[in-house]
């Protein structure tokens, strides 16, 4: 089948042109052999005509190494509690914050201040200097303001900030994944959707239709706005409900079934139809990503008839994996953590956070010098497993602020604290899993 042919082709291409050295991860080859992480060769190849193709990452020499931009376009209070506080709202979600400000213009200017300053152009050059090649950007449906109902309270004016940030990522030479992280009606009960809805309302035609409009809008933007020329992947929805949440079983079963048999195939066609209307060539089409089966919402591809440039998103927070609260056990677990299954799959969210009940004890405190070696090795173990058994990883998250102050959730801080080295390839020489 098509996917396997590409896999074979890519592995022949890469094996034929490069010798394997643990460490040669910075190069990402396109299907026709252009090094997509090298800005000069990109330029020579005509960057604007070429879409990054994650299906070319199907081996551990071309892994995605990325960070999420959590709390930028969807503020999550636990990641940056200073932000809502600075707006004068004592809220857990954007919806509640905007409602409590009760002045749309004021809410807009507060959020615009955040979008325009919390992450800057320098962050992207810093990412590249740390050997990262990818950013995953969570976005809410309210960035397309025409689909927001009058009863829904969200900040406005975000689109131009999104365009600017995506452009900065492109200028730095980063591959970009855009994810519908806050779906209309909310796909989950958590504030990462932008709202706190105890009965997620996403799973029906009304909200699916709004999501299709959002995906068409984003697809058009990706193919017509030059700032988006390194956006290669669009994720249909982040972390929908999952079946092993037994207490909610009947409604969750119906919701995830409908997502897989209606939303995924229709969303897929809407994106491809939008690309056909724009006459986008097949090698410039977007990869379409869905949560991997391991997430727990069922098999994402069960009702899809076309899998060309399909990709899967695997979130792995070992913190919640029930591993014994012992450092060797953590490292052993991650060294043996095989994330393979669907292909290609990316570990699109993970962190260095450990079990909540022990995380700030002396034995696990990441700021104590005697614990840093553990965190470095555990980081290395995760990096190696996610590059060997998946096609790479995207850390959650690049930056936090406020009282969280925990490098285990903050890549930038983890580098400063000496938990993550600036040479990612050194993961392979630390002896973490030997
Ligand atoms: C990047 O591409 C340019 C132009 O193709 C080439 O001359 C240069 O050697 C490449 N750099 C690396 C590090 O591969
Ligand atoms: C991971 O599991 C897959 C599927 O069972 C297997 O093919 C692969 O060899 C495993 N990888 C490692 C590194 O054990």
From TrEMBL:
Beta-glucanases participate in the metabolism of beta-glucan, the main structural component of the cell wall. Acts on lutean, pustulan and 1,6-oligo-beta-D-glucosides. Residues 109-400 form the Glycoside hydrolase family domain. It catalyses: Random hydrolysis of (1->6)-linkages in (1->6)-beta-D-glucans. Its EC number is 3.2.1.75. This is glucan endo-1,6-beta-glucosidase. InterPro entries: GH, Glyco_hydro_5, Glycosyl_hydrolase_5. Keywords: Carbohydrate metabolism, Cell wall biogenesis/degradation, Glycoprotein, Glycosidase, Hydrolase, Polysaccharide degradation, Secreted, Signal. It is found in: Secreted. One of its GO terms (molecular function) is glucan endo-1,6-beta-glucosidase activity. One of its GO terms (cellular component) is cell surface. It comes from the Eukaryota. Belongs to the glycosyl hydrolase 5 (cellulase A) family.
